[in-house]
Write a structure and sequence with these properties.
The complex is a heterodimer of chains A (about 300) and B (about 325). Chain A is an all-alpha fold and about 300 residues long. Chain A has 12 helices and 2 strands, in the order H-H-H-E-E-H-H-H-H-H-H-H-H-H. Classes of the chains: A mainly alpha (about 300), B mainly alpha (about 325).
């Protein structure tokens, strides 16, 4: 976008409209801030929560503000193993973001390809692909993920597989809708009359024009993936205990909550929610801006 | 018309068969139930007897065929853990789940639709923004975390409601229900609230989006021009126009709430089928897992079939395209 008249490009117009919503802008800043903190976690946290030898049991289950044997303040308290909650949250965010982004990326690629291929070829292939996808969409994603996570066992890749299976269908359906419209337009007819390969037409001509609705779906699905991952981990079907994501942290604190030690569960939960709500707010604004029916 | 209905029913049967294979193979590929069933110090004889009693010595395809035949006779086998017929086990847990689900979805609809219409009617008012904020919150925040906060706030800190379990029930038509006793209602309240927040958010968004779009149409312009009050327009025209997607979603959501009930029931130790399936996954109780998945699949296929057929009856355009 190196247009000298920048104020006129669609992207800058879009950005200006986005900026005018303070809520969405604040949410975007929050998302960027959280991701930055999570990426920098190993350098900014006072403690490595996975280094079991560094954990002191004497510091376990202390309330926020406690100064532990490590000589630093546990701003958000400690958990049952004497882990600093703040450090655990930042590391947990890392795991959650990493897993949901990976799953989101794979689901996006797989779903967009399937949807575009269905729209491009039409006929039997389209019917088959879309039938399977409609069928899958009629089942709740959480149930699919639950069953798969239970079948595949604990670990990073089983979890990602479960998330991808639960989510790719949304991308496929959206792409198919947009691609079917593009397919019937003249520029695709023109591209088809040239000796371009099918793959080139699908990936270079059809797919880029389906991107706007896909971006909206992607935002929502990343947020959903984070929530789903946390839910599965909370139910004990997600990651192993050695690599606690946010859901696992919350689950670990659940039993202590009943005795009033709220901080072990509540603070990781707040981090999770701020992230998810912020992503959804950004997605909402983008959707409203892209919806032509609200622009009469 | 009839051809289309028959075609859809055949499709549904095929899908059901495919799912039964997937579920069976998937579930029987996990772990080894012998380890769960038989204590490590059992004699060789007991081991073999148990394996034979549960048909675990047969090849997988034979086990599947036996399973299918038994399925058609309504026999889902016996639970490894509870040692009782699976169907009986599931049906004994079902009323608790149905009660929870219905309370949640009804509550969400009755509250969510009017609030959503208001938010769509006056999108710039502070109250509308508050409603939307609440709905975004309910939509984004994972059910399990809301459950934890509810328990912490209303059960642990304030002590207004019990933190879990079902509490006392009363019998009606031979089934135990919580809502018939005052104390049972107190036990029902928090789990139902927890389960309904997501549905509430969805209803608000649906009603708001529908209202915003309907308010721009000619229908509303003409109604205004003919001097109808705004309240009449909202209740007589807008509500009627947006009710089609809302009714559809209501039906579909009733099914998916069953799935979400898994999470809520686990947190509140609510003795429904959701809790049962999580426990079964943990103990590798395969017959229960298979039966639960088959019943849920059956439920969803029936809902979709019904929705498809009802649509064809309601929408003449679909009817002509098919025939």
């Amino acid at each position: 976008m190196s247009d000298p008249r920048q104020a006129d490009t669609p992207l800058s117009l879009f950005w200006n409209e986005f900026k005018s919503s303070h809520l969405a802008l604040g949410a975007l800043i929050a998302v960027i801030l959280i991701i930055t903190l999570a990426v920098l976690a190993p350098w900014i946290t006072p403690q490595d929560p996975y280094e079991l030898s560094k954990l002191v049991l004497m510091d376990a289950r202390r309330p926020p503000g406690f100064v532990g044997s490590g000589g630093f303040v546990h701003w958000l308290g400690t958990d049952a193993q004497g882990r600093d909650i703040l450090s655990a949250i930042l590391y947990g965010l890392r795991v959650s973001i990493q897993i949901s982004l990976t799953a989101g990326f794979i689901a996006f690629s797989l779903g967009a390809t399937l949807g575009a291929v269905a729209a491009y070829f039409g006929g039997r292939i389209e019917t088959l692909i879309m039938r399977i996808i409609d069928l899958q969409l009629s089942f709740p994603a959480i149930l699919l993920a639950l069953v798969l996570a239970a079948l595949l066992g604990q670990g990073k890749w089983p979890l990602i597989t479960a998330l991808v299976t639960a989510q790719y269908a949304y991308f496929a359906r959206t792409t198919h809708g947009a691609a079917a419209t593009e397919r019937s337009k003249d520029y695709i007819e023109a591209a088809l009359s040239t000796p371009l390969s099918a793959a080139r037409v699908v990936f270079r001509h059809i797919l880029p024009n389906c991107l706007p609705p896909l971006i909206v779906v992607a935002t929502v699905q990343i947020a959903n993936a984070i929530a789903l991952e946390a839910t599965l981990s909370f139910l004990g079907l997600g990651l192993p205990v050695t690599e606690p994501s946010l859901g696992m942290l919350i689950a670990n604190g659940f039993q202590y909550m009943l005795s009033g030690r709220y901080w072990i569960s509540i603070y990781p939960g707040i981090a999770l929610i701020v992230l998810i709500v912020a992503i959804n707010l950004v997605g909402d604004q983008v959707r409203d801006q892209l919806n032509p029916r609200l622009k009469r | 018309m009839l051809g289309f209905v028959i075609q859809r029913i055949i499709q549904a049967v095929v899908v059901m068969l495919v799912i039964s294979v997937l579920v069976f193979v998937g579930v029987y590929a996990v772990g080894n139930p012998i380890d769960v069933l038989i204590s490590p110090d059992a004699t060789q004889l007991i081991r073999e007897q148990t394996i034979r009693a549960y048909g675990l010595d047969q090849p997988l395809w034979k086990q599947y065929l036996d399973f299918l035949v038994r399925l058609l006779h309504g026999d889902f086998g016996r639970s490894f853990v509870y040692n009782m017929p699976v169907l009986e086990l599931i049906f004994s847990r079902l009323p608790a789940t149905i009660e929870l689900t219905l309370t949640a979805v009804l509550g969400a609809t009755i509250l969510g639709v009017p609030l959503g219409i208001y938010a769509g009617y006056r999108p710039d008012r502070l109250l509308a923004k508050l409603i939307m904020g609440l709905s975004i919150f309910g939509f984004s925040v994972p059910t399990f975390w809301i459950g934890l906060v509810l328990i912490f706030t209303f059960a642990v800190t304030l002590g207004w409601f019990p933190a879990g379990n079902r509490g006392p029930t009363a019998s009606l038509w031979g089934v135990e229900w919580s809502f018939l006793t005052g104390e049972g209602l107190a036990y029902l309240f928090l789990p139902a609230l927890n389960l309904s927040l997501f549905k509430f958010a969805m209803m608000v968004r649906l009603a708001r989006a529908g209202t915003r779009e309907t308010m721009l149409t000619d229908t509303v312009k003409f109604a205004r021009a003919s001097g109808e009050s705004e309240f009449t327009i909202l209740t007589r025209h807008v509500l009627r126009l947006i009710s089609i997607p809302i009714v559809t979603v209501f039906g579909l959501e009733l099914g998916s709430t069953l799935a979400f009930a898994v999470v809520t029931e686990t947190i509140f130790s609510w003795p429904g089928v959701g809790k049962l399936i999580i426990d079964s996954i943990a103990t590798l109780d395969r017959p229960v897992m298979v039966a639960y998945l088959m019943l849920v699949a059956f439920l969803f296929i029936m809902i979709n079939l019904t929705v498809d057929i009802v649509y064809v009856f309601l929408d003449p355009r679909l009817r002509h395209r098919r025939s």
